[in-house]
Amino acid sequence: MSKNFFLSTRRNFLMGIVSFLSGSFLAAKSVFAAESDENHSPLILSKEEWKKRLSAKAYSVLREEGTERPFSSPLNNEKRKGLFVCAGCNLPLFDSSKKFDSGTGWPSFWEPLPNSIETKTDFKLIVPRTEYHCMKCGGHQGHVFNDGPRPTGKRYCNNGVALNFQPAD
Asked: Is 137 part of the annotated catalytic residue set?
């Protein structure tokens, strides 16, 4: 194998480690910030308590970082004004005014509410992706991509089973 292959592989490996460590630091910082805010006091439950609280599908996504089938969530078509909240702890994550139809089959948003999510780097598909979780309970919500609409250019691609919708009064 060529010298360039080994340099490229080594560089990718080192960049992956840097990304992982950066993501771990940022996630730890976010959790610390959540602990200092009474409205975002962490919700920590045992595995058994989560299983009692959530459906099997919600448990798979929120606690085991699973993914629901595309186009399977009724929230994908939700158009009313209101808030999308974490299905694990009811922390408001997204305002309905930030929702858009991405065509992907999952509810998508271009901006989360302030102090609602934390991110980390996910290497499950080998290529690093940005995964996001509820700041209060740590429940896995989905991934964020850089192919969303203006003004942020972000697409927060959310599992519908990880959310509940609270219509505005």
From this structure: no
Global pTM reads 0.75
**Backbone phi, psi, residue 144, to 5°:** -110, 135
Residue tagged active-site, from 86, 134, 137, 157 = 157
CA-wise closest residue to 67 among 109, 107, 20 = 107
At 64, which amino acid appears?
A: E
- The values of phi and psi at residue 45, to 5°, are -125, 160
- Every domain of the chain and the residues it spans: 3-167
Given CA atoms 70, 101, 154, 56 in this order, what sign does their dihedral have?
negative
Which 3 state secondary structure label does DSSP give 33? helix
Q: How far apart are CA 70 and CA 126, in angstroms?
A: 21
Q: Are strands 82-86 and 129-134 parallel, antiparallel or unpaired?
A: unpaired
Q: Enumerate the H helices of 36-129 as residue ranges.
A: 47-53, 56-64
CATH architecture of 3-167: Beta Complex (2.170)
Please check whether residue 93 is in contact with residue 141, taking contact to mean a CB–CB distance below 8 angstroms: yes
Q: What is the pLDDT of residues 17-47, one digit of tens each?
A: 444 444 433 333 333 333 334 456 899 999 9
d(CA 33, CA 123): 25
Specify the DSSP class assigned to residue 87: T
